[in-house]
Amino acid sequence: MRKDYNLEKRKYIIGGFLIVIALIYSIRLFDLQLNDERYKKSADSNAFLKKTVYPSRGLMYDRDGELVVYNQPAYDVMLIPRDVKPFDTLDFCRTLHITPDRLRKRFEDMRNSPGYSSYTPQRLIAQLSSQDYGRLQEKLYRFPGFFIQKRILRQYKHAAAANVLGNLREVSSTDIDNDPYYSPGDYTGDLGVENSYEPYLRGIKGMEILIRDAHGRIQGRYEGGARDIEPVSGRDLTLSLDIELQEYAEKLMQGKRGAVVAIEPATGEILCLVSSPTYDPRLLVGRNRGENYTMLTRDESLPLFDRALGGAYPPGSTFKPTQGLILLQEGIITTSTPYPCYHGYINGGLRVGCHGHASPLPLKPALQTSCNAYFCWGFKNMIDRRSKYGSSANAFEVWKKHLVSMGYGYKLGVDLPHESRGFLPNAKFYNKFYGEGHWSANTIISVSIGQGEILSTPLQIANLSATIANRGHFITPHIVKAIQDTVLPEEYRRVRRPTIDQKWYPEVAEGMHMAVLGGTCRRAAIPGIEVAGKTGTAQNPHGKDHSAFMGFAPYENPRIAVAVYVENGGWGANYGVPIGSLVMEKYLCDSISPGRKPMEEQMLNSTISYAKPKKQ
Questions:
Q1: What is 209-221 written as a DSSP string?
Q2: How far apart are CA 170 and CA 20, in angstroms?
Q3: Same domain, 172 and 311
Q4: Same-domain check for residues 293 and 380
Q5: Burial class (CB in 10 A: 0-12, 13-18, 19+), 226
Q6: Confidence at residue 42, expressed as pLDDT on a 0 to 100 scale
Q7: Which of 40, 98, 486, 532 holds its CA 20 to 30 A away from the CA of 453?
Q8: Tell me, what DSSP letter sits at residue 88?
Q9: Is residue 26 part of a domain?
Q10: How many Cβ atoms from other residues are within 10 Å of residue 555's Cβ?
Q11: Sheet-wide strand order for 269-276
């Protein structure tokens, strides 16, 4: 009998078809059981409710142990969308004092938030008041699928140091993508210490696993809580800040724009860091945070902008000590080298004005009287000395290298966000602007007295003061003094030495001491304490000059170095010197001597009128 080959082929085709179907079903079952999380979530949510337990955030203390930032409980209304059953929305709204429209908007925002899932807990309303929490807790059984999540909110003991302490905000989708720690609805540090020390402060979240019955009702903890994960509290911080000094300096700066920075020279610890105008940090806590934040962002005086760290200003005559140090280091001058001053620097048809004083004069009296001509002549004799440097460009790069080593032109590395680097031009900058070989010292002479293209931050000026106070070294300024159970990062303990020989610093320090004894800083004198200082009157092309000062005290074994910068304050002696001197006296003596009370009252009550920026 002949074989039917067509029938034989059909048998293999049908068999293959069945095998393919079996494979498809097997793959799909594998995917559903092992890869598809939806059904696992559904099964888990039917049996369990996993509640995040937020850790206590680390506390903050000032340098004397006073509590500055602490925690308070807050309550969020949470729900698992798939568990929500029809409920009395009017009763719900009346309980929480919200309108039905607002409730609908909350549901809409929740569904549109990143990470939304109907199987996992979602936040509906944040930060209930204690009264709302109590009322809702009594009625919670009426609203199936809802529960209350306890969390931690920050509270600030003082209406001061907002720019230092920072605040908390809700995490963004970017935060969630960048750090697996965060989930939608979490909070993270925003600005200040809250931001820069977030990994230390936030702690580790815990988990509470509750078991449900067939009707979705909570029956208690799963396995008696054996599978729960306890949260780990964040680490406490001891700040270097003296909160009383911070409050005092902020009061002195009321009605003015600018900054005050005070540093303990021996350690680099920041004693106060004032940016004015400022704001009460408690404005950015609670349910009105968003509204208050918007108000602050629209304020034309920019209270959210940290002028102490981010403000880049011409340093003016506070820059002259750096010039004296560079000229001594490079052998351009000795301490006895005199330069003339004919009411200013006059050379080749160029004139840079100066006030009246004796002439000629050497370095220390030049610092004492803040002579512009002296530092212009010194700068010219360095930058144009081709016999030593080969070209003005080469000389300028040497000059800049010394300044960078003293903390100018780059970020110092303070442990706070949003530090500016200021600005130091280089030879390429001038080659591009004037043409290579077509510029000399006279072309850029204004940089020798802290004007022109030079920009610095109040922090950098204060750090220079601390370096001179230490007679030739500094430690990177920092705001955190200690971290609970953790060693402070090494960069805030390491001594940094500029490229200037230490033997030259006492010479410059003496010139600054003379400025207080009988020069431009006489208002900085404190009864019974020797003070060194340097004024600065920084020219401002957009209006009245800026008033600046840097100084330290006591002269021997200094305990505080300070920089003050007051926008449109005029002469350095108008605002910079008295405010800086009062800050030093307050820290060293805890009070202001009777003879200086009138000056204190003048600074506390004085205001500067600032014109509104013109609309473009």
A1: EEEE-TTS-EEEE
A2: 51
A3: no
A4: yes
A5: exposed
A6: 47
A7: 532
A8: -
A9: no
A10: 18
A11: 269-276, 258-264, 560-566, 546-553, 532-538
The number of residues making up the chain comes to 616
Is the pLDDT reported for residue 156 higher than 70? yes
Same domain, 187 and 250: no
Quote the tokens at residue 369: 């009287």
- Burial class for 549, CB neighbours closer than 10 Å (0-12, 13-18, 19+): buried
Question: Strand, helix or coil at 487?
Answer: coil
- What residue numbers bound the domain in which 74 lies? 49-239
Beta-ladder partners of 149? 76
| Number of domains composing the chain | 2
- % the chain with pLDDT above 90: 69
What's the average model confidence in pLDDT over 534-543?
87
Type of residue at 140: L
Q: In terms of Cα–Cα distance, which of 284, 310, 311 is closest to 296?
A: 284
Two structure tokens written together for 82 = 């798939």
Count other Cβ atoms within 10 Å, centred on residue 610.
16
C-alpha distances out from residue 454 to 17, 317, 445, 451, 598, Å = 80, 12, 11, 6, 35
Looking at residue 53, its pLDDT comes to: 86
What is d(CA 348, CA 232) in angstroms, rounded to the nearest whole number?
71
**Cα dihedral value 140, 144, 146, 150, nearest 10:** 50
3 state DSSP class of 549: strand
Is the pTM of the predicted complex or chain greater than 0.85?
yes
Tokens of residue 428, six digits? 């390429």
Tokens of 18: 């069945």
Report d(CA 582, CA 586) in Å as an integer. Answer: 6
Q: Rounded distance, CA 372 to CA 448, Å?
A: 8
Tokens found for residue 9: 């082929």
Whole-number Cα distances in Å, 10 to 4, 7, 24, 490, 595: 10, 5, 21, 79, 114
- Neighbouring C-beta atoms of residue 387, cutoff 10 Å: 6
Nearest to 586 by CA among 272, 240, 259: 272
Question: At which residue do the structure tokens 């109907």 appear?
Answer: 118
Domain shared by 259 and 193, yes or no: no
Residues forming a β-bridge with 563: 261, 550
Whether 562 is in a domain gets the answer yes
Residue 615: pLDDT band with limits 50, 70, 90: very low
Q: What CA–CA distances, in Å, run from 507 to 30, 87, 502, 534, 547?
A: 81, 81, 10, 14, 25
Report d(CA 115, CA 203) in Å as an integer: 22
Answer whether 498's CB lies under 8 Å from 460's CB: no
Cβ proximity of 424 and 408 under 8 Å? yes
Q: Which two tokens stand for residue 534?
A: 């340097």
How is residue 529 annotated by DSSP? B
Q: Give the residue among 79, 94, 210 at the shortest CA–CA distance from 143.
A: 79
* Distance in angstroms (rounded) separating the CA atoms of residues 429 and 266: 36
Amino acid identity, residue 227? R
Over the range 163-199, which residues count as b (16 or more CB within 10 Å of their CB) and which as e? bbbbbbbbbeeebbeeeeebebbbbbbbbbbbbbbbe
**172 and 296 share a domain?**
no
- DSSP output for 329-354: HTTS--TT--B--SSEEEETTEEEE-
Residue 126 has pLDDT above 90, yes or no: no
The residue among 268, 269, 248 whose CA lies nearest residue 260 is 248
Which pair of tokens denotes residue 169? Answer: 């905000």
